[in-house]
Amino acid sequence: MTNQPPGYGYPSDQDPRGQQPPPGQQNPYGSQDPYGQQPPAQPGYGVPQGPYDPQPPQGGYGAPPPGGQGQQPGFGYPPPPGGYQQPGQLPPWLGPTNPYGPPPPGTRTLAGPGDRFLARLIDLGVLLIPFLLVEAVLGFGSIVSDIVVALLVFVYEGAMMLSQQQQSIGKKVMKLRVVSAAHGGRPSDNELWARSAVYGLPQAVICIGTLFALVNVLSLLWDKPLQQCFHDKAGKTVVVKEG
């Protein structure tokens, strides 16, 4: 019977002459094919299944998931409307104050301290008669009269803001308006009521309320860049001068 060369369906642990190696002696040809061909490696532990070629996620490394989540400005995405606002800068919808004259028609700038002070004086004149009536009926300087006066200021301020396009009588005369600090439009009702509450209700507390009211109206002098009083910050609003 003729011996077949190894590598054609026959085991390769015998030599080309078809002889089995003696017991205990290793085949000099090993387990290799005599023609120099290596047997295919069997998959197992430590044997890679293919070339290591990891693919980055679609869109490049660090690409955000679909739907726009995780997008960071400045990394290939368009800037928000109006551009980016840096700390200490005016919002993009608000123009800088013109110290040399009135603002151009149709534009808005921050209301100056003088205009806001005059607007408050006009509002105080409007409320002066109701204040005197309350003091005459309930007693001047009494706790009850202070509470009623604070409530009058709160209701007047809130009602005017909601019904008169964010303007009190004094602000109408001085052409001032309360707007949202975020977008320059109308603040929400809750924001306007919060602003009115911080402005009016603390005056119900004797002495402390009066001191708070004074510091509140003066705080716009050192608040930069939006010139907000405490009640403006509570309502997230600013006061603008309209041309």
Gist?
It contains six helices and three strands. The chain has 243 residues and is mainly α.
Helix share, percent: 25-40%
Instruction: Tell me, rounded to a whole number, the average pLDDT.
Output: 76
- Class of secondary structure makeup: mainly alpha
- Envelope shape: elongated
Taking the sheet with the most strands, its summary is: 3 strands, antiparallel
Low confidence ranges: 67-85
- Count of alpha and pi helical runs: 6
By oligomeric state, this entry counts as single chain
Estimate the strand proportion: 5-15%
**H/E element sequence:** EHHHEHHHE
Distance linking N and C termini: 114 Å
- Rg is 42 Å
The total beta strand count reads: 3
Placed side by side, the strands forming the largest sheet appear as 1-3-2
What does this structure look like?
A 3-stranded antiparallel sheet has the order 1-3-2. The model is unreliable at about 65-85 (pLDDT under 50). The chain has helices at about 115-140, 145-165, 170-175, 190-200, 210-220, 230-235; strands spanning about 110, 175-180, 235-240. The longest helix has 26 residues, at about 115-140. The chain has about 240 residues and is mainly alpha-helical. It contains 6 helices and 3 strands; from the N terminus they run E-H-H-H-E-H-H-H-E. Helix 1 crosses helix 2 and helix 2 (about 145-165) runs antiparallel to helix 4.
